[in-house]
Write a structure and sequence with these properties.
It catalyses: biotin + L-lysyl-[protein] + ATP = N(6)-biotinyl-L-lysyl-[protein] + AMP + diphosphate + H(+). By secondary structure, the protein is α+β, with helices and mostly antiparallel strands. It has three domains: 58 residues, Arc Repressor Mutant, subunit A (Orthogonal Bundle), CATH 1.10.10; 207 residues, 2-Layer Sandwich (BirA Bifunctional Protein, domain 2), CATH 3.30.930.10; 42 residues, SH3 type barrels. Helix content is 32%, strand content 28%. The protein is elongated and about 80 Å long. The chain binds biotinyl-5-AMP.
Length: 323
């Protein structure tokens, strides 16, 4: 169901001139007072609206900054992001995700921040999250799955990001196992899946997505400039962050729903389509060792299969790939 405010914005944006309060109230089947109240809410969220007696309302400009409301108005999802919390600045949306989970917030709750002070990657690595330049968001999921299937959610999220980029550009996104989205060999996005489990059941998952969107090259920290990039750098154009978030959430919901209904097989196929260096020789390292191997693909459970030069095959659940 589209929200009334979203419909109001659509009506006002369709008309180049003024739309009378009566016309809006007729089209939306709400009272004139309700129209007026909605207008005030829109103004609070940064819309500049002109109201002229006997003519009606007109949008002068849309907000240049996102908010929980503006994000939700264009959201075409059934459950994902129906509860959505937006912050200007947090330490890490992952932390907030865990807090919300322990407060019992529902499956599909989304936390988004314009900036993170202590964005984190895997193994307590740092994730650079400058203000207004990217998507820093965490999704709270309560899947009815055993803990061993949690890594599949990371792979699922990576295919969603790759599909979003493919949908909107001519670029060729690739996924480096397990959690990096690359464009032209550079990391544009990373995923961090953290889970709380008890017995043989996942209690909840906080799935973090960090995506560099509008950074220019000089806005990427120097120490990672050789291996990191943004959608803007790769596509040569500025992106609408709000629409990009909405597209990711829509694709995520669709992909997740079919994963729950039909299992991992389709995600596996999509992942392998985008898989980076599959069939090629790479260097793999774990805490204990480093070796050369050919990447074969992913297993039905999401593990990476690799073959060393003696022909021994191994399933990997956690490792770093280098080349
Ligand atoms: C990841 O870790 O790639 C997972 C990143 C998840 C970030 C999201 S943002 C929303 C949510 N809230 C959080 O606090 N985190 C999640 P990993 O594979 O360990 O990669 C980390 C490494 O990527 C760092 O050690 C750097 O080398 C590099 N890196 C840091 N910031 C980057 C950036 N903005 N873009 C590309 N690479 C980056």
């Amino acid at each position: 169901m589209e929200s009334t405010r979203k419909q109001l914005i659509d009506l006002l944006e369709k008309e180049k001139g003024y739309v009378s309060g009566q016309q809006l109230s007729d089209s939306l089947n709400i009272s004139r007072t309700a129209v007026w109240k909605h207008m005030n809410e829109l103004k609070k969220d940064g819309y500049q609206i002109e109201a002229v007696r006997k003519k009606g309302y007109k949008i002068l400009s849309s907000p240049d900054k996102i908010s929980g409301n503006t994000l939700q108005w264009g959201l075409e999802t059934k459950w994902l992001g129906q509860k959505l919390i937006h912050f200007d600045q947090v330490e890490s949306t992952q932390e907030i995700g865990h807090q919300l989970a322990s407060q019992g917030k529902p499956h599909g709750t989304v936390v988004i921040a314009d900036a993170q002070g202590k964005g984190r990657g895997r193994m307590a690595r740092n994730w650079h999250s400058p203000k207004g330049k990217g998507i820093w968001m965490s999704i709270l999921l309560r899947p009815d799955l055993p803990p061993m299937r949690a890594p599949q959610l990371t792979l699922l999220a990576a295919t969603v990001l790759a599909k979003m980029v493919r949908e909107k550009t001519n670029l060729h996104p690739q996924i480096k196992w397990p959690n990096d989205l690359l464009i032209d060999h550079k990391k544009v996005s990373g995923i961090l899946t953290e889970m709380q489990a008890e017995h043989d059941q996942i209690q909840y998952v906080v799935l973090g997505i960090g995506m560099n969107v509008n950074q220019q090259l000089n806005e990427i920290p120097q120490d990672i400039r050789h291996k990191a990039s943004s959608l803007k750098i790769e596509s040569g154009q500025e992106w609408d962050i709000q629409q990009t978030i909405q597209s990711i959430l829509r694709l995520f919901e669709n992909t997740y729903d079919s994963y729950v209904e039909q299992g991992f097989e389709q995600v596996k196929k999509e992942w392998e389509h985008f898989g980076y260096r599959i069939g090629e020789e790479v260097t793999i390292s774990t805490m204990r060792r480093e070796w050369q191997a050919t990447l074969i693909g992913i297993e039905p459970d999401g593990a990476l299969r690799a073959r060393d030069k003696d022909g021994n095959e191994e399933k990997l659940y956690s490792a770093e790939i280098h080349w």
